[in-house]
Amino acid sequence: MNTEVGSKEKHILVVDDEESVRRYLATLLTSEGYEVSCVEGGMEAINLIKQQVSPSAVILDVMMPQVDGLETLRRIREIDETLPIIMLSAVGQTATIVKAMKMGASDYLTKPFEDDELGITLEKVFEKMTLVREVEDLRDQLNKTSDFISINDEMIRIKEIIRKIAGTDATVLVLGESGVGKELIARAIHDQSLRRDKVMVRVNCAALPSELLESELFGFERGAFTGAIRGKMGKFELANGGTMFLDEIAEMSPGLQAKLLHVLQDGEFSKLGGKKDLKVDVRIVAATNQNLEKAIKEGRFREDLYYRLNVVKIVVPPLRERKEDIPLLCQHFFKKFRAQYDSDMEKIPETIIEAFMSYAWPGNIRELENMMRRLVVLKDEKYVLKEMTLPSELKPEPEKTAAASEPLSLKEISKRKTVEVERDAIFNALVENNWNKKRAAETLNISYRALQYKIKEYGIDR
After folding, report:
1. Percent of the chain, pLDDT > 70?
2. Which tens digits make up the pLDDT trace of 106-118?
3. Half-sphere exposure (CA, 13 Å, Cβ side) for 4?
4. Looking at the DSSP assignment, which residues form a beta bridge with residue 107?
């Protein structure tokens, strides 16, 4: 395999049996700042993608010996339904291209083509991909907003606060344990505000190292650092006119805290490598599960930034303090997942509700949501209950076997526990990646084939 390396931002896989075409495309794409990998056959491309090599797009020739372009397209689509694929065809192959488009090709080019045609086609494909993801994100956001369900007095008071402040531009600080629904609060504020027709951009401040978080938030100019072949918009630019949700704000470094304070005070910032300040109009909603006043005393958080953020403070109670919401939330998630997974499960077993009401919920609503998802997908009440730390009278009876009276060896106990943990990890990875097996395999750091085997072994079904 011949590999040319340019910008790490987008990786193009070229599949063509003609060496001259591969060399030409590699040179052209590299000059445009793309990272390029070239293979000469369909099977090589299929195996690369199975082995978790994840290109941003594939350029695929129609006419190839052994495994042709259409068969390669079909088999790639079995692995990844969304990967952009551009077909290369010769003049007179209209019927084949029509068939390829019906099979899920993203676009096509007819050989010979002008240099700029390739760049324009790639840009079109990537723009379409961005739009598709934005629509999916909007759908997810709408679904998440509908998860804001409560009859708890404190939550009703919080809804009233949101109603009062939504129409203002006041900065909001949302506090609460992990999983209580801080992002739902931010989404509710945005959706009820005058900015609702603009975007709400979410940034997890704990997810990236400080230097990467800075470029993510503020963007950078071309040449700002080694490898910056193109400039990039930051999240503040993207959120202009809308709302920025800064999750895990306590994890932000002191240097970045100073830059954020400048944005809040003056409504402007500069990109990395930039020579001028950019004006921006963004409402900030920040959230954390940490004690910021303690962080100030320890010198980890700026006091002036804290007061800028803490114009309106909302403290979200943990689920253990609002147990009257559990039956409502269970019904909501049950209906949601039954529709999502086309489940024939008719109702939530009473033992589940009883157990859920007695459970402490350290992971709060996020944990409850995952438990309900497991119940609907696996249809295994005992498996769900076994995952929880419950009072002994609520624990499911162990299944009796012929060897039930025989004590288990430590090796057998360890093996059974490993199986449970592995099954759970695979299930969670599939759910997090919307049942895209290729991405789930990447999350688990195993091959696509190994994941397929494990799914069959554990009987995990969508």
Report:
1. 84
2. 899 988 888 888 8
3. 20
4. 86
Cα–Cα dist 185/314, whole Å: 9
- Dihedral pair phi/psi, residue 441, rounded to 5°: -60, -40
For helices 437-444 and 410-432, the axis angle rounded to 10 degrees is 130
Pick the range with the lowest mean pLDDT from 72-86, 115-129, 311-325: 115-129
> What's the pLDDT at 6?
32
Instruction: In whole angstroms, give the CA distance from residue 352 to residue 320.
Output: 16
What type of residue is 240?
Answer: N
Rounded Cα distance between 315 and 332, Å, is 23
pLDDT in tens, 271-308: 887 778 889 999 999 999 999 999 999 999 999 999 99
- Give yes or no for a contact between 148 and 181, defined as CB atoms under 8 angstroms apart: yes
β-bridge partners, 35: 11
Mean pLDDT, the chain, whole residue set: 84
Helix, strand, coil share (%) of the chain residues, nearest 5: 50, 15, 35
**Inter-residue long-range contacts of 90-98, CB under 8 Å, 24+ positions, other chains counted:** 90/62, 90/63, 93/62, 93/63, 96/62, 96/70, 97/62
Other C-beta atoms closer than 10 Å to the C-beta of 31 total 11
pLDDT at 79 over 70: yes
pLDDT in tens, 234-249: 899 889 999 999 999 9
Q: Could you give the 3-state DSSP secondary structure of residue 441?
A: helix
**Residue 159 CB neighbour total at 10 angstroms:** 15
Rounded distance, CA 79 to CA 230, Å?
31
DSSP single-letter state for residue 195: T
At position 345, the amino acid (one-letter code) is M
Crossing angle (nearest 10°) for helices 350-358 and 364-378: 160
> All domains of the chain, ordered by start, with CATH?
2-133 (3.40.50.2300), 146-317 (3.40.50.300), 319-399 (1.10.8.60), 408-462 (1.10.10.60)
Who contacts 226 (Cβ-Cβ below 8 Å, separation ≥6)?
A: none
Q: 3-class SS at 289? A: coil
Torsion angle, alpha carbons of 130, 133, 134, 136, to 10: 160
Q: Which residues contact 330 (CB under 8 A, 6 or more apart)?
A: 348, 352, 353, 356, 368, 372
Per-residue pLDDT tens over the stretch 187-224: 999 999 999 989 899 999 998 888 889 888 988 777 66
Nearest-angstrom CA–CA distance, 84 and 46: 14
